Structures are given as C-alpha cells and as structure tokens.
Amino acid sequence: MDTILKTNNLTLSFNGKKILDNLSLNFREGEIHAVVGPNGAGKSTFASIVMGLEGYRKFEGDIIFKDISIKKLGVYERAKLGITMGWQEPARFEGLKIRQFMQASTKDKKEDSIVKALSILGIDYREYSERAIDKSLSGGERKKFELASIVAMQPELVILDEPDSGIDVASLDNIFSAIKHLHSNGATVILITHSLEVLKNAQYAYLLCSGTLLDEGKVSKIRKYFEGKCLSCAHKNIPLFSELEKNI
What we know:
Strand order of the largest sheet: 6-9-10-3-11-12
Number of helices: 10
Largest sheet: 6 strands, mixed
Helix content: 25-40%
Order of helices and strands: EEEHEEHEEHHHEHEHEHEEHH
Strand content: 25-35%
Number of strands: 12
Distance between the termini: 31 Å
Shape: globular
Structural class: alpha/beta
C-alpha cells in the first residue's frame, strides 16, 4: 500500500526545549493509524505541524504528502489538498447555525449528505438544524458536529486529536462509527490519543515519548504500553500510568 504522508526528521523547539526530536513517521494510504504516548510526548504538536497551524511553522525536517513537500504551505492550501483536522477542543462559531456550518463543509452540498453525516454521529438534523454553534451546545455536542462536518467533507487525510475528549460513554460508539465510515470511504485517519478504546480502532500505531519514536507496530503490540509495561529507554519523561489506567 502506498504511503500518503511521510514526516522526515521533524524537529521543533520551544524556549530551548525540544518538543519533537528527529521524528520520522510513515502513514499508509487508506489505513487508520494511532499516535499514542503520555501527556507531553509531542502528539498534539505533531498534529499541529502536519496541519500547518500558526506557531508551528518554524521546524526542521520536512512533510511529504502524496510525494510532494507541503512544508511551505499554509493551512488553507493543505486543506485544498484534502488534509483536515478535528480539534481536541472544537471551535465555536457565534451566530452560525448548524445548517449553515454543515452546508459549508459538505463536499457535494446536498442536504441528504448532511442528514447522513449527522445520523452517523447520532444527531437528528431536524432537531438541530437551526441551532447555533455556540455556548448553548455542550463540548461533546460540538465535538460530534465537528466530526459530522469532516465526514461530509470526505477528506483524503484526517487527523483527529483526542476524538473521545468530552464525549460521554453513550456517544463513544457514534465517534467510532464515524471513524470507520471515514476509513470505509477511503480516507487515511490519524488518531492522536492516550485512550486504549480509541487505539483499538486503529490498524497500526506509533508510540511517542519526549518527542521521539519509541516503538511502532500493530495495536496488539503497542497496547502493552497501556498495561503499564513501559519500554526501556533513556528518557526522563515517566508516563503517569495512574492517569492512563482510567481509559483501560
């Protein structure tokens, strides 16, 4: 299977501290990947660099998308290529109705596509279409609307940063259904997570610690990290397993 995204020796420092250190990862087209590790491992920083966010542009190394360097491209240009990202904390759009938000995101602009995308996330379009994406919605609701918009967008590559963040247990199946739908429609999915339940939805995983790659492989191999069997390494960053065990 072809590689759709490759990062070559990504290195980024803030205030003299390396957040990513020569990080090289390969993501195969059409697969679900997970990037896991403890808080502070560099997972979200990695996602922000790939998406081209402001403040994450001055890095060493390169990012190759479909055999083309995108290092110098901005967020909008990367989005036009088919790259998108779901945030750990979704944005609010004061005054923008859900109907308008979904219409702007949907690739074919058809109402049927909007209804289908929302239904995958367990949302009744008729109930929410005239609601605004503002503080009247819970964080979990905004998360589901954002993911529904990504489903309707039909991206080639989607990065989901902590997709289960703020989601109640009853809605987790909707989140996982959306991930499977994206995959079944040909999208390459990268899950940024420290949740074992999210990791289980991946086909291949990368384990980061202190901005470097410690291990990679099938989920059955990497899940040992969540079972308290940390890999031997020289890093001073010791994972807080008591925090991670809440997700096991």
